[in-house]
Structures are given as structure tokens and as C-alpha cells.
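Suppose you are handed a protein chain with no further information: no name, no annotation, nothing but its sequence. What can you learn? This example shows the usual starting point.
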Amino acid sequence: MEGSREQVSTNAFNDIISAQVVIYGTSLGPGAISRGTEKATTHVTLIYQLEWAKIANGPANLGAREWLHIAVPKSTGLSQTQTTSNHMTMAWNKQSGTIYKMTVLEHGQPPPGLPPPGDQDVTSPHLVNATSSGESFLPNSHYDVYLFALNGGNENDYVTIPYVDAKTAFSEPTNVTVVKTSSTTINLSWLPPTEDGRAASVDGYRVTWSPPSLDGRSSVDVLLDTAIEVTGLSPNTDYDVTVTTFSSAGEGKESGTITGTTTYSKPINVAVEDTTSSSIDITWAAPDDGGDATPIIGYIVSWLPADNTGLMAVDGADTLQATIPGLTSNTEYSVSVAARSSPGVGEDSDPESGTTTFSKPTGITISSSTFSSIALTWTAPEDGGGANEITGYKVSWSPAEDAGFDLTGKAETTTITGLHSNTEYSIQVAAQSSSGVDGEISDAEAGTTTFSKPTGITFAGSKSSSIDLAWTEPGAGGGAKPIDNYIVSWSTTDSSDSMLFPGNAPVASIPELTSNTNYELKVAAQSLFGDGEFSTAMDAATAPAPPTAVLVSYTLSTQFQVTWDHSTDDEVHATTKYRLLCTPTDGGLTVEKVTTNMDKFFTIDSLVSNTEYSVTVTALTDDVNIFSDASEEALHTTGAYIF
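A reasonable first move is to predict its three-dimensional structure. Written in C-alpha cells, the prediction is:
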């Protein structure tokens, strides 16, 4: 070593295999550099700035603060191979015949001057968890490591190899939390580790889970965030999750394991089974899941649209149907179902559409009824959500033995025909929509048909001012009500009238008619619910007018003569004879005489002497049931009996 910088260059020491260098020391002792017999083929160059007061037996021309270039075999290189938050592993390539010692200091402390004393030999790899002064490593901290290579164990013949960038890793993240789960995802959050040291900044986090996801992944790196959504997972499966940091110091301490359980996948075969104006009935099948982490405890049924959104819980794994109440009429809803388990609510099913029907028509009113029909009106239901328009109405009626329905147009009135007489019906109305679904049925309204027509009307006779009738009462029909009255109507070409007769007997005598007149007669049964069907019309005529001007003369004790006037012009029923009635006013025996011709006088005998009689004359026809009213009476007294 002659005293120039070039003379101590790397090339000048090609065969150096060891050297003693005191970094920033005060001297180089005798024999600080010696030659060996084994020549190295690969070298690294250590460059130090040396300071000393004098060099004994050394190059005379080397002064203080000179640069010294020393070649050391490359295979001796020191490295940090593993690290955790509280220890690190150092490794190097051992050289034959070399003993190694190590000193570890907190970063920034003065370097050691000598190898550590005693028998503290180390071998590669070497795990370190404390400084040489006994202080345990802190997470995320920076330490200086010095490896001393002693040639043949000679403590005076060594080289110091420093590693001044040794770092411990971060400790574990804290508060690792499963924020939420779905059937294929788990959302996690955590807090960064709290560190005493500041050797490095967290570059990111490594989230690891087991079992692997469906695509085979089991970890993911997260940069610059403390939350992640792990995707591609299997439904209803437990996943064990840990989080660690990674930085320039390596991977940090693993967090404690937490378990996140994915929810169930979507239920299948969701179907709308029935609808009303305010509800939708749905059914579904349980989700088909491969996992068995947790059982289903129920379902959540949800529905749209936005102005009437809602959800309801259904308890029990075996409950696979629900009725959604409180909906708006005539509104289309989108309905979904999700399974519930202890981790939460699973994936929504594919939505199923269901439309509520129209609400019920109101104000059902029976406007009239006949023996075979009922007329009614109603008010249309409200439009609701406007999903469909009313295309018509379905009118239905009962009782069961005579039930039926009729489809009508948009008009809010109809007449039900073909019904049974005297039968009470329960009638309901429902709107029909353009979707073909019937709306809610209205409240029932009662309507009763009237009686059918009486039959067998018979002319029983007539007088000048009356006609007598008889008939067969109508059938009872449905038996809803009894006959209260009969309506008998009559008419001529100039007038008409009617009269009520008791319903307990099918007979009537129509009074106050005009004599010698043709009438058209009809009869109908009447009940609480109205007039029944009128019978077939029958023609009948009143009898001739009564005789007038009755006069009694030629009185004897047992007889007298009676005369009268009577017009027979334009008679419907021709007068053929007369009947005379002589009735004692004191209640004695009446004497009846009938003429044999059309003479208008007659002598009555067989009377009681000295007795007052009421005398009347009646016009008779060939029909014994057709005769005039009696004439006005004439009072007359027979003479006294003469012996």
C-alpha cells in the first residue's frame, strides 16, 4: 500500500478476502489489511471515509478524511428476508472459516466500534426481535443492523457490514367489521393500525378470505382505503376474513379473524295468484342455495311504485305465500321477495307484476221490477291508479237455484231479465277492465220480482153499473211475499180506471160502471215489491139500464097494477123480460113476478091486504147472470080486506 488513492483502489486488493475497518474510528491498527491465499472472483466495493490520528506501520502518505475503497466478496451481502411487526430475519451468504456477530441499534445511533464481545456468534438466517441493548422491537420502526465478519474468528481481523434500512412491519388493523352482506358480497371496513414508530407509510391492505370465491380468488389488495366489497362469493356461506397491511417494510401483522356470512340468493317462481282492489296474493319457492351456513327464518316482500312503496315481513321458512294489503285500486305493482336469515336480507327475486282491480261500484239502486226482470243503476268506482280503463260491468245475482250474471257495457244501468216471479234476488256489480280482470264486487242489493199474471179470468155476471169477475191466482213463484191485493183495471175507448181488491180471494165486483157498455178488463197481483204482471185482457159488458118511472095503480086488497118506462135502444145485452119484486116494508114475505113479454105493465096478486110494499122493476136478459140494476122503489099500500 503505497500512499496514493489509486494504490488502494479495488484493483489493488483483488485477492482480499477479509479486512478490518473501523467506521469513523480513530485508527487502523497494525495488520489492518492482510493478504490471503484464496482469491475471490466476485467483489463489492465498500467505500468509507476514515478519520484517524496516526497509522502505525501503515501507509505514510494517507491523511485524515481520506476515502478508502475496500473490496469485499459479494456473496457476503447482508439482507432482510422476513419481517413482522415485532421481529425481522436477517440473512447472508456465509464464507468458509468466518465467524459472524451482530449488533442491532435504534436507527440513528452511532455505529458500534467493535464486534460485540463474548461468544454471541450468529448464523444465517438469524431472527432478531430486540436491539442489542434489550429493547423489544416496535411495529413500523427503523433499526440499524451491523454484521461483523471475523476472519477465522480473529476479533482483530474483521469487516463490518452494515444494513441501515431494516424495518419492522405494521401491527394489525383494528375494528375489522362486516358492514353488510349480500348473496354474493361482503362489505368490510377497518381502522389503520396505531403505531409508535414511523418507519414507513401504509401502502395498502391485504384482505384474505376462506373459502375462496367462485372465481378462485382468496385475497385482494386495497390501496388508499379502509373498506372493500368482496365480490364473487357463494350465497349462504360463512367466510373467515383477515386484514393485514403491506408497506415497504413488508406485510404487517394479521388482524383477528372475523366471520362474514353471505345472505341467500333470490327466491324463485314468484307468481301473482290473485288480486283485489286493495291487495295482491303472491306465492314463491325458496332460493336454491348451495351453502348451508344459516337457515331461512322468513321472507321480506316488497313492492313498488314509488308513490305506494312498502315492505312486509313474513315469518317462517315454510311460509311461501303472502297477501299484500292496503294497496291502491287499479294500480300496477312490481313485487319482489327476499329470504331472511341471521346475516340479513338476501337477494331480491326477479320482480313480478301484479295489478289491483277496480274498487267496488257504489250506490246500487233497484229502479223497478217486473215478474221476470229487475232494473238497477249504480255509480262507477274510482279510477285509482289508472292502470286500466273500465270496459264494462259484470252484474251477478243469486239465489243459487237461480244464479246468473250478465255482461254490460260502460253504462251504469241495466235490466236483468229472465228471472222467476215473486223471488228475492241478491244483486252485485263489478267493473271489468281492459286487462280482462273483474274488479271488486259491490255490496249486495236486494231486489224482488213481482207476481206473474193471474189466469182463468171468468166473467161472473154484470149489472147496469157493475161487472163481476173471478180468476185463478198466479203461482207463488219464489215465494218471497204473499199477495197483498189484486189490481183490477178496466177501460173503454174513452176512459180507464182501476181498483184494488183484497188479495185473499180471486174475485171482484167492479162498481160505478156505465150501463149497457163494453169494457176491457185485466187483473194483476200486487205485493210489497210492486204490481205483478197483468192478466190477458177480457171483454165484458154491463147490463141494460134499470127501468124508470115505476107506478102502482088499480089497487085492491090483494093486488095492484105496476107500470114503468124502459128504453131498449142499442143494448149490448138485450132485455127480454122484467122482474118485479114486492117487499113488505114491515119485513114480510117478498112477492117476485117475472113477465113473459116486453110489456111495461103487470098486475101483481097474492098480496097481503092493508100492507105497504116497496116495488122495484129489473130488466132481465137471456143470461141469468146479466140483469139491470133495480129501478127506484115505488111504495104502495094494498086496500083493506072487504068481507
